[in-house]
Design goal:
Length: 292
């Protein structure tokens, strides 16, 4: 494989494999004893994060070489989250544009900011509630888009929560297509639920495990990093198998420096002396810091 080429065939195999594992984990979690549900939820947290990593590749246009295939595969991956592909792309590219700027310094208490709101944001990230908010954001876009207008503007809440920039980013979305994507993702979830004869406890256990692990990683790879759009992330050190299961998502500084580099090539661009995931995550529980 030549450097920087998109591993389309490998990605297709991974997307299929992760989907099959996720479906199997949901099935087991809905049928087994409590310990089987816990084990299945743990497995699902990894397979679903692998699927999200593939969605992340699609957002940057590097999941498949063919643009149309990339979009449809991204839509399928988004259904496992569940969210809409266009919505996720708008939010994520907005994150790249504002990374470590004033609106995305969730780890620092800046002048004029509310301490309780900062702490509420911070611990929602650490406990997985951030994923819940992301889910309801998609549903709001589908059923109550007027709610997004409340998060725009110059109000302190809008600025501190970053909703001002994120809600502004979705104004350019195709309204019908972007909502149909969210609707299709939930239709997929309902179909999955009844086809596999899942139960609520099994579904919630799996998605709670996934949501916690996903949410914690989303900011562990940024917390206390340099206040720079490109260098403001970490190439986190984790066990190699763990990193491969997440498709090198922990190599986040390399990704921010070169967003169009496919996941399989990120190790060649990564810093070898990055902090460990555990050291960053542990320090995050001490709460937001004063802006240096």
């Amino acid at each position: 494989m030549k450097a920087e080429t998109i591993p389309s065939r490998l990605n297709s195999v991974l997307l299929l494999a992760a989907s099959l594992v996720s479906g199997g984990a949901l099935w087991v979690a809905s049928r087994g004893p409590w310990w089987a549900t816990v084990l299945a939820a743990l497995v699902f947290s990894y397979s679903a994060n692998a699927t999200f990593s593939l969605l992340h590749e699609a957002v940057h246009g590097v999941l498949f070489e063919h643009a149309t295939v990339n979009t449809w595969a991204g839509r399928f991956a988004a259904a496992w989250f569940p969210t809409g592909f266009s919505l996720q792309r708008a939010f994520h590219l907005n994150h790249h544009a504002h990374n470590r700027g004033p609106s995305e310094r969730f780890d620092y208490l800046q002048p004029g900011e509310s301490r309780w709101l900062k702490n509420a944001q911070w611990y929602s990230i650490l406990t997985g509630l951030y994923w819940v908010f992301a889910i309801f954001g998609g549903l709001a876009w589908l059923f109550a888009p007027f709610a997004f207008a409340l998060g725009r503007g110059d109000k302190r809440f809008a600025k501190q929560t970053a909703s001002a920039t994120y809600f502004e980013a979705i104004r350019s979305l195709p309204p019908v297509v972007s909502r149909l994507e969210v609707l299709a993702s939930w239709a997929f979830q309902v179909t999955l639920f009844f086809t596999l004869e899942l139960n609520v406890v099994g579904w919630l256990a799996c998605y709670a495990a996934f949501g916690w692990q996903w949410s914690a990683l989303q900011y562990a790879d940024h917390a206390y990093s340099p206040l720079d759009a490109h260098d403001g992330a970490w190439d986190l050190r984790v066990p190699r198998l763990h990193r491969w299961l997440f498709l090198n998502y922990h190599l986040h500084r390399a990704h921010h420096r070169s967003p169009r580099t496919p996941w399989i090539h990120l190790p060649a661009r990564a810093d070898a002396d990055g902090p460990s995931w555990w050291s960053v995550y542990r320090s995050m529980w001490r709460g937001p810091r004063e802006l240096p």
